[in-house]
Design a protein that fits this description.
The protein is mainly alpha-helical. Helices cover 58% and strands 0% of the residues. The protein has six helices and no strands. The chain is globular and about 40 Å long.
Length: 130
């Protein structure tokens, strides 16, 4: 059943449990798979490993992260921003996961990311500026 997610990770070799996690959560949402695949296509192997680490260490599921990154990408498109720096996008979403106070019901990560982008914006920093 890994065939659905393997195209999303063409450059890396995530573990079977990581693939299973994404497959289980995304397999039923073909539009999300297609949109997320477009976002992931710009990533390098170490970027994908970092994404999987961030998903694993957060309180949010793989589908929450996929939805948030797709929403982020849509927001960048609406802003006519040509840059789509995958590592910085993952870092931004990670920061959004830390904005919540511990509670029983987690707010939608996609909504938090969109609200943060709307309120604070996003400046893509090139690697030469680090």
């Amino acid at each position: 059943m890994y065939f659905l997610i393997l195209p999303l990770f063409p450059m890396s070799q995530p573990s079977h449990s990581e693939l299973e996690l994404f497959n289980r959560h995304l397999a039923e949402d073909a539009p999300l798979i297609e949109a997320f695949s477009g976002v992931v296509d710009r990533a390098q192997e170490f970027d994908l490993e970092r994404l999987l680490e961030q998903v694993d260490s957060s309180d949010y599921s793989a589908v929450d992260w996929a939805e948030a990154l797709v929403e982020f990408d849509r927001w960048l498109e609406e802003q006519n921003t040509g840059a789509r720096p995958f590592p910085q996008m993952v870092g931004y979403v990670h920061c959004c996961t830390l904005m919540n106070a511990p509670q029983i019901s987690l707010p939608s990560l996609k909504v938090i990311v969109y609200q943060s982008l709307t309120d604070f914006g996003f400046e893509a920093v090139s690697e030469t500026q680090f």
